Structures are given as structure tokens and as C-alpha cells.
Amino acid sequence: MANQARIWTVVKPTVGLPLFLGSVTVIAILVHFAVLTHTAWFPKYWNGKAAAIESSVKTG
């Protein structure tokens, strides 16, 4: 654990933590966007059409 603690001697926590959390946020948004644009069921799910999702799962 001491090996990972040394990163803060190179990068200040006030800079490193926002960069890390920001990169996690950007990755999560990109993954959601990819799922939203490349599937048929995800937009229906976000619009609250659970019955359409269930029927597509049963038929597909």
C-alpha cells in the first residue's frame, strides 16, 4: 500500500483526485452513450416502456 501512497508526492491530491474522478465520469458517460446509440431496448427503457423491453426479450 505504501507504493500507491507515494503518488501524492508527485501529484497533489487537489489536482489528482479531480482528474481521476473526472476521467471516471467521462468513461461512464461514454459507455452509456454507446449503449444508448447501439441498442434498441435501452432508449425504450429510459422512456419507461418496460413492456416493449419484455416483449423484445421474449421474441429475440
Automatic annotation (TrEMBL):
Residue ranges occupied by any Antenna complex alpha/beta subunit domain in the UniProt entry: 4-42
Gene3D superfamilies in the cross-refs: Light-harvesting complex
Transmembrane intervals: 20-42
InterPro entries associated with the record: Antenna_a/b (IPR000066), Antenna_alpha (IPR018332), Light-harvesting_complex (IPR035889)
High-level lineage: Bacteria, Pseudomonadati, Pseudomonadota, Alphaproteobacteria, Hyphomicrobiales
Cited function: Antenna complexes are light-harvesting systems, which transfer the excitation energy to the reaction centers.
Keyword Nuclease set for record: no
Record protein name field: Light-harvesting protein
Keyword set, alphabetical order: Antenna complex, Bacteriochlorophyll, Cell membrane, Chlorophyll, Chromophore, Light-harvesting polypeptide, Magnesium, Membrane, Metal-binding, Transmembrane, Transmembrane helix
Protein topology in the membrane: Single-pass type II membrane protein
Stored Pfam families: LHC
SUPFAM superfamilies assigned: Light-harvesting complex subunits (SSF56918)
Subcellular location: Cell inner membrane
